[in-house]
Amino acid sequence: MSRNIVSGGGPDAADVQARRVRDYYDGSTWDYRILWSRHHLHFGYWETDTRSHARSLINMNRQVSERAKLEYEDRVLDAGCGVGGFAVWMAREHAVRVDGITIVESQLQEARRHARRSGVEPLVRFSQKDYTATGFPDASFDAATAIESVCYARDKRDFLAEAYRVLKPGGRLVVCDGYRSGRSSGDDEELMRSWLDGWAIPDLATGEEMTAWARLSGFQDVRLEDIEDHCRPSHYRLYLMAMAAYLPASLVHKLGLRSAVQHGNLRAARDQWRALRRNLWFQGILSARKPANR
To answer: What's this model's pTM, rounded to 2 decimal places?
Structure first.
């Protein structure tokens, strides 16, 4: 029986985590729009010829889509689609059919508006669903992608099992996310918790854990690539923005004009870089394939 959850630990834990994620994204919408991007809520991928933040975000889309080996009219699941930036981009650039799912109602509405304005509505469909229990039939998709969304699952194995179920035989899975370098303790773990709690993330898997779980779920050709060197400028950019805003934003928070969610978002933007400097985590892309005979 499916646990029908965003996170492990039973229905109560699922409800709490889902509420945390919704509150986080509802509370930080304007921070993202003003300081990062309206439609691409993920870190960028910098190459030697990358000259802008906006281009780095598109580069990340390209890195994930290349590993998903998208072909004309493939059906793709974008799990944790946010406000639809990557789903719309895939439809426009690759002429694939995309189902984008999110548990956040406000993101769903913005994603639909973005698809409509971009002229890709015939190819993109958005719905409010849990990516560990989507309700899609078995073997529905040629590929499944997730950019910085699987981190919100308390038990990443639930996501992997569902992705395996809904992929067709031979289907491709690509997960771009943060991964722990190892399990930490003491001051290092306090720093990690300060970061992760601020972004409503229950935990990150280590790279070794995630690859092992993917294989246990049945996937083949499992590969985790460390892309941190390409993402470090993006992580540092966020840190600089957080530090520039931290003191005035903290004062505004103390006056009750910025919420605890907004203040936690800013603290996490600072602490993700501090944790990165201690080599506690890295940005990686996991790719895998469902066996052709399953």
So the answer is: 0.94
Three-state secondary structure call for residue 61:
helix
Q: What is the pLDDT of residues 161-216, one digit of tens each?
A: 999 999 999 999 999 999 999 999 999 999 999 999 999 999 999 999 999 999 99
φ/ψ of residue 286, rounded to 5: -95, 130
Contacts of 117 (CB under 8 A, 6+ apart): none
Specify the fold of 10-183+202-228+281-289.
Rossmann fold (3.40.50)
The domain locations on the chain are 10-183+202-228+281-289
* Distance between CA atoms of residues 112 and 189, nearest Å: 39
Per the DSSP assignment, residues forming a β-bridge with 126 are 100
How many whole angstroms separate alpha carbon 165 and alpha carbon 163?
A: 5
Structure tokens at 10: 């039973």
- Sheet with 220-226, edge to edge strand ranges: 124-128, 97-102, 75-79, 141-147, 167-180, 281-289, 220-226
pLDDT > 70 in the chain, percent: 96
